[in-house]
Amino acid sequence: MAEILVDMRSITKRFPGILANDAIDFQVERGEIHALLGENGAGKSTLMSVLSGFYRPDAGEIWLRGRKASLHSPRQALDHGIGMVHQHFRLVETFTVVENVLLGTTGGPQLFLNRRKYEGTIAGFAKNYGIDIDPRAKIWQLSVGEKQRIEILKLLYRGADILILDEPTAVLTPQDVRDLFKTLRQMTDSGQAIILITHKLQEVMEVADRITVLRKGRNAGTVFKKDVDERMLTGMMVERDLLTVTPPRQHRIGAPVLRLKNASVIGDRGLIALKGVSLEVRSGEILGVAGITGNGQRELAEAITGLRPLTRGKLLIGNADLTNQGPGRLIRAGVGSIPEDRLGTGLVPGLDIYDNVILKDYRRDPISRRQIIDRHAVSDRANRLVSKFQIQTSDLNYPVRLMSGGNLQRLLLAREISLQPKLVIASYPVRGLDVGATESVYRLLTDLCNKGVAILLISEDLDELLSLADRIAVLFRGEIMGIVDAKEADIEDLGLMMVGVLKEPAGA
Amino acid sequence: MINNWFDKRFSLTLEKQMSVPPWVSLLVPLASIALALLVGAAFLGLTGNNPWQIYGVMFQGAFGTAYGLSETVVNAIPLLLTGLGVALAFRMLLWNIGAEGQFFMGAFGAGWVALSFPHAPAYLVLPGMLLAGFAGGALWGLLPAIPRALLGVNETLTTLMLNYVAILWVDYLIYGPWRDPHGFNFPLTAQFSQAATLPSLFGTRMHAGLFIALAAAVAVYIIMKHTTWGYEIRVIGESHQAARYAGINVAKNILLVMLISGGLSGLAGFCQVSAITHRLQESISPGYGYTAIIVAWLGKLNPWAIIVVSLLFGGFLVGVYMMESAGLPAATVSILEGAILFFVLAGEMLTRYRIRLERRNA
């Protein structure tokens, strides 16, 4: 067996309201490419930030080369041979390759730089790893793939032998990806270890030796690539926990509340994020949206709540065409939403409970009349919601950012429900919540649905969708791969649709 | 290399404090003023003076006599108006540091009405000057708000730069087209008519602008605390995303808030030329618009607190005259003001973050 370079033992890292890493064990051996696979929010980046000294764990130990280490900063991690290549490069654009590689090294040039000497050394050093670069080139002249190689070179030159790459292929062309994998292989051949953070299955199957899957902050298993296939990995990645309790549903499904017809939107990076998506949600129905995070779910929620304009297609609430009418109009039409980013979008972190319960209807009677907010009406509502939805708080005047994740979500749901919506868009409504809070969120959603509200439930948890939803739509790269009846759905087929292998004819 | 030495032995981290007890948020501004006075005392001591005696003279001059108090109020009026204007913008995290320019454009607007209608009665010319003063400041606030709202151009730089434009514009007028032909070639406009003068109070230089300023403080308080518009400002100040999610038009509010913010500073300019200088001239402001930033911050953007802080800083300015007569340079007060702001900002940091210094065990 090869030498164990990294041994992370029972690492726990907590952020306010979220348990990002829950007693994770993780080992890396010399000479291997170890893929760290998982959904967004599974805890991959947190775990690697702990290993590279950006975060300190709340509990757990890190052993490096058989000795216990404490890492307080990225520099200390680098002293132990750990280097991380981030998605956003940390290069000085106006400096040359050599200058960037030397920047911050100790024992290098002191006041004056002997360019020629270092240009030779660094070019030679790079060649050992199959990296072909012009040491005199300025960073801004280089392609993205070349910049990434400079980042890797920088770490190698500093003596790193444990390299962490965070989603390295996200920005690369297929040609660059091949070159990168060749370089990585050369590095492991000369004894380095590579940790590859990714959620792309094909890459893992192509390049990894071992795979650790994280799910909801826990280690869902470490396997050898030769022992698994894509289907098994999907099964490990997506949630298979048994549901706590699913409250009873009355299936009284009525007229369509939301109709999205052939809708396309542009994402933040200027690329098409939704391509001709058509779906409808009827009164009393829960339509689940499955898919690996980042395949258009956020944009779908933003399109329906009016935050993101449609470049094509139509959005109808009831019979009213509300295409591109803006969020205010959709709120008045009865569209409620539980956004992915609860604190910061759904709730205003620095304001208190009073101010947060009126966020959606502060302009309307009875909360305000003639632009004047009625403090009594506000405090009545706040007190009523806090007791009815069992929101635990010591003081309604405290900023809501001090509340726990479960209480925040209850407050957010309480507000949306108090507005008597016709349609609720719920994005990952139980992400990061404990069992009790999860149960109460499920109960609130089913109650709503039983009262005839249409619900669009976006989730990465297939079991959750299978037990709560009536139908499930699968999103892959901004397109709907199919909409299936939840009672007849096959979890394996759903998994294949999520990775784009299977496409069902539109309909259902 | 000191940095390196430090890094090897200690780790310094800032951690966000979750909650701040109320007594801390009161103590911090008071402690910052005390520390700033200590720094000032050290400076005065080093230049061979007795600091305590000088502070005594300043305090006595600003608050100890009826005349001193009236002069303190005279200086507090423009500080209060500009401070409120700045605070309104700061509430929305719009860094309007252009109050000085907005003040000058307000003075220009008011001066234009006063000089154009020298024979108009008070009940026409004073409201006209008030409106023109507000409009001058408001437009000067709106100007940098437009690129900010539409293109996201940083308002800190544009508002600052427009200060110089406004000040030099007034300079141009008083050295050029508006110069009083009977003024012995001094850079002054003609004196405004008696009708264009705000009534004075108790035979001092205190004037009716005090009521305008106090009314503005009440108005800002009501807007922020009780209106839907104030609510929108608070939401935007906390999170643009949440504001958009709630259907609030962020761009429209940027324009509106900068308009009112500039307008309040414009009112200060109107009060100053109507009640104090009675004409446009070079020294209509000893930097009220800049001091307003410190006033707003020290008052934690709360209108009532800003009234108190304006009086304090009004007193500082009166203290300057006393110090000048004691033979000290007026710049000493600028040093004190700067020191106070420095300590307030540092104190603010300490209430929001906890600093952890740990010895490295490696």
Description:
The complex is a heterodimer of chains A (508) and B (362). Chain A is α/β, with parallel strands linked by helices and 508 residues long. Chain A folds into 2 domains: 4-238, 3-Layer(aba) Sandwich (Rossmann fold); 242-334 and 421-508, Rossmann fold. Chain A has 16 helices and 22 strands. Chain A has helices at 44-51, 74-79, 97-102, 115-128, 144-157, 174-189, 201-207, 230-237, 297-304, 327-332, 353-357, 375-388, 405-418, 435-450, 462-468, 491-498, and strands at 4-15, 18-29, 33-37, 59-64, 67-69, 82-85, 162-166, 193-198, 210-215, 218-224, 256-266, 272-282, 286-290, 312-317, 320-321, 335-338, 368-369, 372-373, 423-427, 454-458, 471-476, 479-485. In chain A, the strands form 5 sheets. A 6-stranded mixed β-sheet of chain A has the order 6-7-8-3-9-10, sandwiched between helices. A 6-stranded mixed β-sheet of chain A has the order 16-19-20-13-21-22, with helices on both faces. In chain A, a hairpin with a 5-residue loop joins strand 11 and strand 12. In chain A, helix 13 (405-418) runs parallel beside helix 14. Chain A is elongated and about 75 Å long. Chain A starts with a strand and ends in a 10-residue tail after the last helix. Chain B has 362 residues and is mainly alpha-helical. Chain B has a domain at 82-304. Chain B has a two-stranded antiparallel sheet. Chain B is built from 14 helices and 2 strands. In chain B, helix 4 (66-91) runs antiparallel to helix 11 (250-277) and helix 6 (122-151) packs antiparallel against helix 7. Chain B starts with a helix and ends with a strand. The mean pLDDT of chain B is 85. The A-B interface holds A 16, 70, 72-73, 75-76, 305-307, 326-331, 337, 339, 341, 344-351, 355, 358-360, 362-363, 368, 371-373, 375, 398-399, 401-402 and B 7, 11, 18-19, 226-229, 231-232, 234-235, 238-239, 241-242, 244-248, 358, 360-362.
